[in-house]
Amino acid sequence: MGRIFALLFAATVLAGATAGANAADLLPPPPPIEPPPPVDLGGWYLRGDVGVGATQISDWNYSLRPGIDGAGNVVIPAGPVWNTHRSIGDTAFAGAGVGYQFNSWVRFDLTGEYRIQSAYRATNFFAFPGCGSACSGFDNYNANLGTALFLANAYVDLGTWYGLTPFIGGGVGAAFHNFSGLTDVGFGVANGGYGVAADTNATNFAWQVTGGLAFAVTPNLRLEVAYRYLDMGKITSGPISCNALPCFGERHSFNVASNDVRVGFRYIIPSLTPVPMMAPPPMPPLVRKY
Known about the structure:
This protein is mainly beta. The protein contains one helix and 13 strands; from the N terminus they run H-E-E-E-E-E-E-E-E-E-E-E-E-E. The strands form two sheets. Strands 1-5-6-7-8-10-11-13 form an eight-stranded antiparallel β-barrel. It has a two-stranded antiparallel ribbon with strand order 2-3.
């Protein structure tokens, strides 16, 4: 009996030693591979916008030149002239563009838009010296201003909360103006007088600053609501030709700007969106076999 217990004890010790040796042959597992940091995906996008603009004019001015009367004499404009009214109507616009989102903060785009015609109105009161109210009158002016606008814009997205991303931005470009249909109708001592100016075109430097909110409708679609201040430079009319002499070739000039409210969308093109590289899976542990 004692011999049997001795054999069992020896077998147990030998088995434990063998298991320990095999365990010692296993290499320690490699350290886990850290996941890559989040990638700020960029991508090309298309955009479209519609809106309304509260157009405004500033630095309004007019100029007169000497005229020629019916006898061929040079006539110098006499008497004071007061501008009693000047305004330009509101407008609506639609535009489209293409852009690139560099990361979750910065994006750029190129846009073009057409702004429908705004109604220009002005009134000048005048009086010739020496004959009181009998030599006074006023002129009413009417015209239309239409504009095509092209801008290069940059934006900074300020972070996203509950799907809403506030942003600010600015842009520069060119405004192509058409100032058309300028007429001059006289009243008072000028009753029956009528004048018209040829249409004029102007290309001006334009700039804008903007701010708004973007909402992620889907992973590839953003809805935007924004305010924009837009400066479109100076407009100068052609000289007004009259149906009576003398005619002083009057011109009007003013700066034009607008406070715009825009609603639009950005569609990120999926096929042109970079896909981040995924880290490879960890290697299985190596085992030594004897």
